[in-house]
Amino acid sequence: MPVAGAALRRMGFLTIGSFDLDDPGPGHESTLAVIELGERLGFDSAWLRHRHFQPGISSPVAIMAAASQRTSRIHLGTAVTPLGWENPLRLAEDLATVDVLSGGRVEPGVSVGPPMRFDDVRDALYPDTADQEDFGYERVLRLHRFLRGDPASRFAGTQGIEVFTDVVTPHSPGLADRLWYGGVSVRSATWAGEQGLNLLTSSVVRYEGAETAADPDDPAEYDFARLQAAQLQAYRAAHPDPAAARTSQGLVVVPTDSATPAQRAKYTAYVDARTPRTVRPQGPGRLLFAPDLLGPSEQIAERLQQHAGYREVDEVVFALPFGFAHEDYVQILTDTAAHLGPALGWSPS
Q1: Rounded-to-integer distance, Cα 277 and Cα 132, Å
Q2: What is the chain's Cα-based Rg?
Q3: Which residues pair with 295 in a beta bridge?
Q4: Do 235 and 199 meet the contact criterion of CB atoms below 8 Å apart?
Q5: Where is average pLDDT lowest: 10-14, 275-279, 299-303?
Q6: How far apart are CA 299 and CA 303, in angstroms?
Q7: Going by C-beta distance under 8 Å and a sequence separation of 6 or more, which residues neighbour residue 65?
Q8: Which residue segments constitute the domains of the chain, with CATH numbers given?
Q9: pLDDT at 49 over 50
Q10: pLDDT tens digits for range 317-340
């Protein structure tokens, strides 16, 4: 459990792994190079977003497998894998395999719900079972059971010359304890706590106030930090062992200590374009987005230390902005490790 004012214990980063649809190789290679750089800079973890039918990583497990052979220390996570796209049994096999290859460094983060744009992909993804699929919490629990080593088959023994087990192979001890749930609401955070899972929070929360705010023009009504802190507190209150509960915060953070004038201009334009969505909840899901943090590391550190959500965690996974050039990510990660992390009390691994 984090202690108010304590030093940041673990620091990671998150990337979408952008690439050119007509020439995807260089983008994937850039993602692997960024992970290698993260290890050299001392980051504790590197996390991959999960995208389908978009110019972003569609198979984080494959990227983690490659990265596991090019790194030796940094942990490799997904933030998050939407389980509506996955068969939990097959995913358990893939995750366990990469965990074995990496020496126990996989940090799988998952979420639930129907796949994005489900009506457009249901015939390709679940041609015969779309109406029967359960996209709720049970999908997470199935994956957790398989990673833990619970039986997944009714048969174990020898048939002819072949030997079969009734559990997922390979089994990687400890992997189940590193399973994270990505929650955006008090309800999902509470559920994750009740299950003893780790909790990933991000730059998105579900606004759970009244349909019509008492004062819709009062910025405090849509205070992202306050809402995120409430979710983290609900999670810890529901966890069977609050002192051991792991929580992580993931905001978009862009330090500019060594950025060139052109980079600062690019970053400022990016943040300005995204800021309007942070003022009010968005869409039918009433999602509220956190403001991106841009500026010198010392200023960002001060803003984080005043952030109610940040004060509830001692691990972070800072998200890299979408669509930037490789050299931009090198600058952002280098400044994060050299300036921002130490300003938060973090020490490189």
Answers
A1: 35
A2: 20
A3: 255
A4: yes
A5: 275-279
A6: 6
A7: 97, 98, 101
A8: 10-154+161-343 (3.20.20.30)
A9: yes
A10: 999 999 999 999 999 999 999 999
